Predict the structure.
Amino acid sequence: MSVYKDEQRGTWYCMFRYNDWTGRQKQKCKRGFKTKREAKEYEEQFMHTTEADMNMKVGAFVETYFRDKQGELKERSIKNKRYMIERHILPYFEQKSMNEITPADIIQWQNKMREAGYSQTYLRMLQNQMTALFTHASNIYNLTNNPCKKVKKMGKSDADKMDFWTYEEYQQFINTIEVGSRYYVLFEILFWTGMRIGELLALFKSDVNFQENKISISKTYYRAEGKDVITTPKTEQSVRTIDIPEFLTQEIKEYCNKLYEFPDSERLFPIVGEAVQHKMVRHIQRAGVKKIRVHDLRHSACAYLAHQGVAPMVIKERMGHKDIKITLNTYGHLYPNEQKKVADMLNRKRNEASSENAPAGNRDISGTD
């Protein structure tokens, strides 16, 4: 028997032996259970986890998943994934065994999520979390049947409508902010570089090359549990150096000159993302332009470049996209339709070839009777 009554405390505890991942035998003791049944269930779930038994409950497997991903995912990613899983998946599946969940269960869950009225992009994010759990179970722990493989994904990876400002709308907005001020320079960088807000808030003075008009992007900033966190960017491709126009270099330089003895290793904009969003909302109202998010300034930068005819590959490198597909899927519709140009080119080439190969008597020779 591995479950015992703690007579002094009036609670139950379990004590048992198991083999860890190296094969060594260890002893586990867990106290404080209100009932004998709770203590026994804890032991069973623990053994399922250590043995990678897919009889384990989803709630227990989630902990296994995050333990396995600890060295792969960033702290912020783990926090965001945990939030979505604990709020939207565990309430429906926590006490179900991994190997008893069917495609029908997944469909019923999807319907519940749709009924909640979430956006298409958020639905896809939730679907991705569910799929990630079962894919990990299949690939690493030999789950026989992955129910997510038999079900159509819900939601969309890209929103039906992408919000962004035209150049004219941006000018209308920026004209409401004092030239040279902190927020003026901040919004100028966002629009003219397409930088992510976290990347911008992590910028040091030393990241700006004033001689060569370049900005190096190698980190990102966020606020977590009341602390400032600076870490590596979203993907490897996010680490990049981009060229900036001379006028933007000058604006940044003048801003830095106003900061008395400002060290090279301090954040140029020592504020949080929420402050930027609040400032943006106030000046949107003042400017009378349509409401967009701070992140939509990144879309605005891409839209502006696309309308100027900049090649998608150049935009991909400038934005730090992981794959050209992201650039094309997100912004491809902003490019003018090139089909007419292709047809005209083919027609022109065909006519040139026909003209060169036609017999002399069939050619149109002007100046003859």
Notes: The longest helix spans residues 120-141.
